[in-house]
């Protein structure tokens, strides 16, 4: 494994920085809400500060519909990386922006977000580094690190229920990246909190991380998630259907629990997820000949593309193991991107990616409202001409 500083950059900042410029589309800016009442319950960020979220109230026909979206930002897997994280917005609400832009699935404009624009929309800030699974009671006075992600998740949901979500007729829990994993790990728990009879589903955007060896043949991701589970005390807050059979770290891989999820779930993912390619398949410190390819798929050699096609094969095999439940939604395109629901140009715009004859927003909306099922997997790269091109250094 890499050293602490490099791990933090690889598993956190690489994602956050690449996405930051993309989510700042023209849209609604929403003020932050600090959940100060949660502190007394021990539901706090890594540094002990209060959890936070941004809430845009619903209007019109959407007043009793709720979209709860969990932001991404990687994980920390040991004291060193968690200490580095606790002094950033991903570990402390004191470092968070007071306003964030709502775009894509969070947009309040029907032309940009046809099915969810007038819902109550919540962006839950991510400051625990464990996809909201941490569950350690003790706090080491020498570090002051609080591993309380599961308490944060519960406190935020309880606060939203008290603000009207307890009367929800429809609800969707979604998330991007580590937040997309959150929406898988906590999907059934979310459903159980909502009123009986409510129309409740979950959407995971770029949260289907797979257990695959890196190009050096090492189980880099499996070792990393094992450390995350140990550091945060995650075992008791991961799905018991998985932890009863596998080590806790393995239960951060959705392929090991999606089949047991009872609530309807939509999996939105790129088969060549750019973050997974850069950090799981080709982690930091890998062969430098991969540098251009891992940041721009069009720069890959024929041999490198063969490796990426192998990654896609592993990804699709992991998906196929989940069966084909009629309630499951799938939009698996062949774009080289990571997180597609928050970015307006990808979610719903004139040049957005298309699978079959639908853009992502249409596919998710049709699935949520039971207008029509959607389970489609794209052809291999480079066949999809609708994919956006994002290049990062």
Describe the 3D structure.
The model is unreliable at 1-10 and 12-25 (pLDDT under 50). This protein has a ten-stranded mixed beta sheet, sandwiched between helices. A two-stranded antiparallel ribbon has the order 10-11. α1 (4-23) runs parallel beside α2. The chain is 30% helix and 15% strand. It is globular. The chain has helices at residues 4-23, 79-85, 149-162, 178-185, 187-193, 220-232, 240-243, 274-281, 291-295, 302-320, 344-347, 360-368, and strands at 28-34, 52-56, 65-70, 99-102, 120-124, 170-176, 199-205, 265-270, 329-333, 354-355, 358-359, 375-377. The longest helix has 20 residues, at 4-23. With 393 residues, it is α/β, with parallel strands linked by helices. It is built from twelve helices and twelve strands.
What's the helix and strand layout?
Layout: H1 4-23, E1 28-34, E2 52-56, E3 65-70, H2 79-85, E4 99-102, E5 120-124, H3 149-162, E6 170-176, H4 178-185, H5 187-193, E7 199-205, H6 220-232, H7 240-243, E8 265-270, H8 274-281, H9 291-295, H10 302-320, E9 329-333, H11 344-347, E10 354-355, E11 358-359, H12 360-368, E12 375-377
Parallel strand pairs: 3-5, 3-6, 6-7, 7-8, 8-9, 9-12
Antiparallel strand pairs: 1-2, 1-4, 2-5, 10-11
């Amino acid at each position: 494994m890499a050293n602490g500083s490099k791990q933090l950059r690889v598993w956190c900042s690489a994602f956050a920085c690449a996405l930051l410029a993309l989510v700042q589309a023209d849209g609604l800016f929403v003020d932050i809400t600090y959940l100060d009442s949660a502190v007394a319950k021990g539901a706090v960020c890594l540094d002990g500060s209060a959890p936070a979220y941004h809430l845009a109230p619903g209007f019109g026909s959407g007043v009793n519909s709720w979209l709860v979206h969990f932001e991404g930002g990687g994980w920390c897997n040991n004291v060193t990386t968690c200490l580095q994280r606790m002094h950033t917005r991903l570990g402390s609400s004191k470092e968070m922006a007071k306003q964030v832009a709502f775009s894509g699935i969070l947009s309040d404009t029907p032309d940009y977000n046809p099915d969810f624009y007038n819902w109550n929309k919540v962006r839950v800030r991510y400051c625990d580094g464990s996809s909201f699974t941490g569950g350690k009671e003790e706090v080491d006075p020498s570090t002051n690190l609080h591993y309380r992600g599961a308490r944060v998740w519960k406190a935020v949901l309880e606060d939203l229920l008290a603000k009207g979500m307890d009367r929800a007729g429809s609800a969707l829990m979604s998330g991007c990246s580590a937040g997309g994993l959150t929406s898988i790990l906590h999907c059934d728990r979310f459903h159980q909190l909502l009123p009986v009879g409510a129309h409740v589903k979950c959407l995971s955007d770029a949260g289907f991380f797979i257990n695959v060896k890196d190009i050096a043949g090492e189980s880099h991701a499996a070792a990393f998630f094992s450390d995350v589970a140990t550091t945060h005390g995650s075992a008791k807050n991961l799905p018991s259907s998985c932890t009863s059979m596998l080590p806790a770290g393995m239960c951060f891989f959705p392929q090991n629990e999606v089949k047991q999820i009872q609530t309807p779930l939509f999996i939105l993912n790129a088969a060549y997820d750019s973050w997974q390619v850069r950090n799981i398949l080709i982690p930091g410190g890998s062969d430098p000949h991969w540098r251009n390819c891992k940041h721009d798929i069009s720069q890959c050699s024929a041999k490198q593309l063969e490796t990426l096609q192998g990654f896609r094969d592993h990804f699709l095999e992991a998906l196929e193991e989940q069966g084909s439940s009629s309630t499951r939604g799938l939009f698996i395109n062949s774009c080289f991107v990571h997180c597609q629901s928050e970015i307006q140009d990808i979610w719903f715009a004139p040049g957005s990616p298309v699978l079959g004859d639908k853009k992502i927003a249409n596919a998710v909306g049709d699935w949520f409202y039971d207008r029509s099922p959607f389970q489609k997997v794209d052809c291999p790269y480079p066949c999809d001409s609708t994919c956006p091109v994002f290049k990062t250094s």
